[in-house]
Predict the structure.
Amino acid sequence: MKLTISPDKHYFMKDGKPLFLMADTNWSAFTHPDLEEWREYLDFRREQNFNAVQMNLLPQRHSCTPRQWIHPFTVTSEGRFDYSCIRTEYFDHVCQYLDEMAAREMQPMIVLLWGNFVQGTWQGIRDAGRTNVEEKPYYQPMTIAEMEHFLQYVIPRLREYNPVFLVSGDVNLSEDVVHYDTVQDQMGANPETVAFYHKALQVTKNLAPDCLTTLHIAPKVVLPAQLIEAPELDFYMYQPGHVYSEPQLNRTLAQDIRSYPVSRPIYNSETSYEANIYFDRSQGRFDERWIRRAFWQGVLSGANAGFTYGAGGVWLWRQNQNFCSERGDLGLVNDWRDDLRLPGAYDMGFAKLAADMIGLYDLKPASDLIHNNPCEEIVCAANDDQSKLVIYMPFSWPMSVDADLSGYRVYGVDLEKRWALTPAYSVRDGITFFRQLRYNHDYLIVACRE
């Protein structure tokens, strides 16, 4: 059965039931792993409770040097892609890898056109003049005619796998200035870029009307009305990014998107990769506690359709500590097999289990229920009749809720230890007061009316 959108436009469904997507990031899936490695990877992630993989259809702008380079297009003597000459053997290879995913019932989420294939993106500013596709990073934008030719070939080949099509990849589509961590991101989107992706979205949906479509965007991007109102767009994605200084983006971006005039499911597509370095600090790496906070704050702030995790050595597929990038910081990751086993991946498998058992699909942000909230880091969500409340606490605190939970079944989870807890609480004047939990970990509290 195909992935569909719920009648209330808030979550995904499959076989008539709510489905929470828990994806892994493997941008270089179609260019780097051999078939046996791909099978090993899929089996491992499936065992860890992932049900989707987010991939780049074309060679990733930044990734590790592969053992053998497979090109999707003929390469000219000048080292440029000839977009008029599509190499069918590359896409035969892609389909073989998608067959392996289908055998394991894992959902493909495929980026069609990363920013380095499109005119006017920040990748073009940063990588201007780098046109040799044998090197990385490289930049070679398509014309609209070349884009249409490419999509008219590839979409019919891929649609039988019922993928989610991420039409764009890591781009600014905002009309306003975007203040992020690089000079290239601090500008409004090029109107040519927005028009290009709008057309690509229309072409994709026309060729695969039953496949879900979305846009993978850069951090802090507010979509223009032209794209928000596009009927071809099925759900919203956002990217908090990879900076240490703004962890709040996981929740605030979800909150901002909930104010869009067209309601659609919201999905956190790219938070900080575990074991990657901070992009805005000279030292430090993101760890599993950071990942857990990103997940729960995003989901309880409105992004309850799904989440994409990423591991340092996996997303760019580092093999045997080989060279990864001219940017040394991107190369400071482990072998993909090592980072496949990072603790945050198991935390996300546990989060997927919790999402399925609790039922996060019908929750809406309700952090205003936190009484005298000491900060905005403690978040809460509830269903419409408040018969179910879920609270995330990134640290131990004597928290209280503006609700009488005396008729509820209340339980807690120490997310660091994955211990089941029974929180102590009392009710006075319609407010439920929780005793501070014993350790300085992060916690989930769930209350269900009996």
Observations:
- The CA atoms of residues 400 and 433 lie 4 Å apart.
- The mean pLDDT is 92.
- The first strand starts at residue 4 and ends at 5.
- The chain has two domains: 4-361, 366-449.
